[in-house]
Design goal:
This protein is mainly α. The chain contains 21 helices and five strands. Helix 6 packs across helix 12, helix 13 packs across helix 14 and helix 15 packs across helix 16. The longest helix is centred in the middle third of the chain and has 25 residues.
């Protein structure tokens, strides 16, 4: 008997369900594991080389991990997944193939037909086990057009898994959400502890050489120093718990020119690959709180990011697919500006954040939401193009991540199915939460005129353009009410100057 197990590139679990299932019907010597690097997938978009390096190096290290357990691992580079699987089956002649359902909608649909259309053998696709909603779904039968709030989704998840919950069922500390405590600006001159780095071994060095030769890719991976094994990922997480978790909450929304990650964990690349397990992570953070080593608002904020937002985004992705990429509620049509690929703009906030992602392949969530997506909503940039830009550059990017986070939450292009309001702001918010404005040529308090910050022009123009719809949204009431400060003449000036600015993009 010979059984093959196909493991996808983002399924690098310590205990993989398909391997576990295979061991119930065969010995490790009878199991052949196939992993495929698809050149077609690597070149689907102009991906950042650090993203490609992480995926490829982690995959190759995982293959070595499996070999050390006694498995035969067929790790192959192929033109595409289909040709890679066919070549594997021709060589190993398995009686059947086991795999776990993909996190990508299109690939999961393809998995369902791989046996009939591509392989002449039975294929069993196991349920995806990488998310907590696989065990407990707060809303297993959602109504198509109903809006489900993340806050209540999150509370149901907390209760089910017993996370920061007291014996009487109340939330630890007396509140479900400590967001109001997590809006501090980073003090001037404050130095944040840096995340750990990991030396490149021979496998990683070879990967970096290979990705440097992918002509469609962008950025550089020469200084790549992320974790690529379970042990390294765990060490990175332990470092976060020890050095950054306690102050994560207060500075969760802060932005600064001088610090790339502040107190953020930067664990999403590892979770999304399967190198870290979400539930054990939040449980470890909660233990830090009970031991008196981390404040409640930081721990709750971290739990909410994983058990709340991450799971809710996954849930929304499968709820809204397959049409999520086509959502365009605000009828935005402009292409992504050229400066998004260079950072060459006079707007210091955008320049800093864009150059940061081009250099590191990462921005924390507020930079993504309140700088990049905020600008794209206000400027009317096509959601599908914005999504592809995020998919290309971010080290933690996968379809299930970006569709709901960018198209749903960030751009509000799904009409409010993911987030109840568009996350838009003028320069006032950026000036309050960052040091970007202090060295910018534009004036954050000027509504229009030659020196007015473009965020102000675009913000007021967006309110004027969509006033009637925004007025009907109770969460946007205060924003729309502020339009009373603009008379007809000033509205006309704002609109004209905004249109002039947009014409330069």
């Amino acid at each position: 008997m010979s059984i093959s197990v196909w493991i996808l590139e983002d399924q690098l679990l310590r205990t993989h369900p398909a391997v576990t299932k295979a061991l119930t019907i065969a010995t490790s010597a009878e199991i052949n594991i196939v992993m495929i690097e698809s050149r077609k997938a690597q070149q689907r978009l102009p991906y950042h080389r650090k993203r490609l390096a992480l995926i490829m190096s982690a995959g190759r290290h995982y293959a070595e991990h499996l070999k050390a357990q006694g498995f035969t691992v067929d790790y192959r580079s192929a033109a595409d997944v289909a040709s890679g699987l066919r070549a594997h089956c021709e060589k190993y002649q398995p009686s059947h193939l086991l795999t776990m359902a993909a996190s990508h909608y299109g690939l999961r649909q393809w998995q369902q037909h791989v046996a009939a259309e591509h392989l002449a053998l039975p294929v069993e696709v196991l349920a995806n086990a990488q998310f907590l909603t696989s065990e407990f779904d707060p809303y297993p039968k959602p109504e198509p057009d109903k809006r489900y709030l993340m806050e209540y989704f999150y509370r149901k998840m907390r209760k089910h898994f017993g996370l920061l919950i007291e014996p009487d069922g109340s939330p630890t500390g007396g509140s479900w959400n400590y967001d109001k405590l997590n809006r501090e600006k980073l003090p001037k001159g404050h130095a944040c502890p840096l995340p750990p780095t990991f030396e490149q071994d021979s496998i990683t060095k070879q990967v970096i050489l290979e990705v440097s030769q992918i002509e469609t890719a962008v950025g550089s991976a020469k200084d790549f120093s992320l974790a690529v094994t379970h042990q390294q990922a765990q060490a990175a997480f332990d470092d976060f718990l020890e050095h950054r978790l306690d102050l994560f909450g207060p500075y969760e929304d802060a932005m600064t020119t001088d610090e790339d990650t502040l107190y953020h964990s930067v664990m999403s690349p590892y979770m999304n690959l399967g190198l870290l397990e979400p539930l054990s992570m939040v449980e470890a953070a909660i233990r830090r709180y009970h031991a008196g080593n981390a404040r409640i608002n930081s721990v709750e904020g971290f739990v909410r990011q994983i058990v709340g937002w991450r799971e809710f985004m996954w849930w929304q992705y499968w709820r809204q697919m397959p049409g999520m990429r086509e959502h365009n509620h605000w009828q935005a049509t402009l292409p992504v500006p050229e400066f998004f690929w260079s950072g060459d703009t006079d707007m210091n906030c955008l320049k800093t954040v864009i150059k940061r992602v081009l250099r590191t392949s990462f921005n924390h969530h507020i930079e993504r939401l309140m700088i990049l997506c905020n600008f794209c909503v206000l400027a009317g940039i096509d959601p599908a193009e914005v999504n592809d830009w995020f998919m290309s550059l971010y080290i933690d990017a996968y379809d299930w991540v970006m569709y709901p986070n960018v198209i749903g939450m960030g751009l509000n292009a799904d009409g409010g199915l993911t987030a109840t309001k568009p996350y838009i702001s003028s320069a006032n918010y950026i000036n309050k939460m960052s040091d970007f404005c202090g060295t910018c040529r534009y004036k954050p308090k000027q509504r229009h005129g030659q020196d007015a910050c473009p965020f102000n022009l675009l913000y007021w123009n967006f309110l004027v353009k969509h006033e009637s719809e925004l007025r009907a949204n109770p969460r946007m009431g205060p924003n729309v009410l502020a339009l009373r400060h603009l008379d007809a003449e000033e509205r006309a000036i704002v609109t004209a100057e905004a249109e002039k600015f947009l014409a330069t993009l």
